[in-house]
Automatic annotation (TrEMBL):
Residues 3-303 form the FAD/NAD(P)-binding domain. This is Thioredoxin reductase. The gene is trxB. Belongs to the class-II pyridine nucleotide-disulfide oxidoreductase family. PROSITE patterns: PYRIDINE_REDOX_2 (PS00573). Signal peptide: none annotated. Pfam families: Pyr_redox_2. Homodimer. Its cofactor is FAD. Transmembrane segments: none annotated. Binds 1 FAD per subunit. It comes from the Bacteria. It catalyses: [thioredoxin]-dithiol + NADP(+) = [thioredoxin]-disulfide + NADPH + H(+). NCBIfam families: TRX_reduct.
Length: 319
């Protein structure tokens, strides 16, 4: 019987592992299909405290894993959780399968911390994820990467509040921000939309969708090819950065409604002011529940909180 199983890695999962390992709980980490989470798809991370010169996303995640392992955390690589079951005795059964293979496995644990995160939505165009991983001009986080695009034109793809907000944020750095939307008006709230459209650096590109990323000789984005959604005509837009703002998908499909409450988008709901879910002994941390901040440092903070709550819960069981 495990004391703590942590589902997912990234800043939330690894921080939860560091804290619970230092509490001598010997946590077991199940990495999922993307060890290290979304930060492994970024290059320079300059906004995580403690690294004044910045650090590569994958390197940061390796360091966090090593720190967790130093204190006794154990990592099970290459497994993806398929189900979490609350047992009659109050413990949990966690079922998983190999990411590459057919083998299934299961563990028993007194507590579970869900840190499986959320995945940014992209367009599904050829070579898209290679551009994300190589830092070649495609990203889904303006707050993380906006400062790398000073005095160059960029675009934001989307039409909701996030798109309007990210476009406005990027005007601090970019020389021009094209806001590309499939329709002829934004879906964003009136105040957010007006704020973006009133900004002289933002130019809306209506009734358009990106159908191809145009690359320079070094494999970096130099522009996008657009298709008009009304007449089907094509055009090209010269720019150096593409920011995706078409939403995120929480990785919560393996969690039943009996176990956790979710919002309409699938994000796990927490007890207000805590990381606990509606099921005693089950906690969530990071982007699986965070629909507002979605930053590495806020995910790490929730990972810390979840580990502390799990430790207190276990102490109550023993008492």
């Amino acid at each position: 019987m495990e004391n703590v199983i942590i589902i997912g890695t990234g800043p939330a999962g690894y921080t939860a592992a560091i804290y619970s390992a230092r509490a001598d709980l010997s946590p077991l980490i199940l990495t999922g299909s993307q060890p290290g989470g979304q930060l492994t798809t970024t290059t320079d991370v300059e906004n995580f405290p403690g690294f004044p010169e910045g650090i590569m996303g994958p390197e940061l995640m390796v360091k966090m894993q090593q720190q967790a392992e130093r204190f006794g955390a154990r990592v099970e690589n290459g497994v993806e959780v398929t189900d979490v079951i609350k047992n009659d005795d109050g413990s949990f059964t966690v079922k998983a399968k190999q990411v590459f293979g057919t083998e299934t496995m299961e563990w028993q644990s007194k507590t579970v911390i869900i840190a499986s995160g959320a995945s940014a939505r992209y367009l599904g165009l050829p070579g898209e994820m290679d551009l994300v991983k190589s830092g070649a001009g495609l990203t889904a986080c303006a707050t993380c990467d906006g400062a790398f695009y000073r005095d160059v034109p960029v675009c934001v793809i989307g039409g909701g509040d996030s798109a309007a907000e990210e476009a406005t944020f990027l005007t601090k750095f970019a020389s021009k921000v094209y806001l590309i939307h499939r329709r002829e008006e934004l879906r964003a709230s009136k105040i957010m939309a007006q704020r973006a459209l009133d900004n002289p650096k933002i130019e809306p590109v209506w009734n358009s969708q990106v159908v191809e990323y145009l690359l320079d000789d070094n494999g970096r984005i130099r522009g996008v090819k657009l298709e008009n959604t009304v007449d089907g005509s094509h055009s090209e837009l010269e720019l150096e950065g593409v920011f995706m703002a078409i939403g995120h998908t929480p990785n919560s499909g393996f969690l039943s409604d009996e176990l956790v409450d979710k919002d309409e988008s699938g994000y796990v709901l927490q007890v207000p002011g805590r990381t606990a879910t509606k099921t005693p002994g089950l906690y969530s941390a990071g982007d699986i529940s965070d629909t507002v901040y979605r930053q590495g440092i806020t995910a790490a903070g929730q990972g810390c909180a979840a580990a502390l709550e799990a430790e207190h819960y276990l102490a109550g069981l023993e008492g």
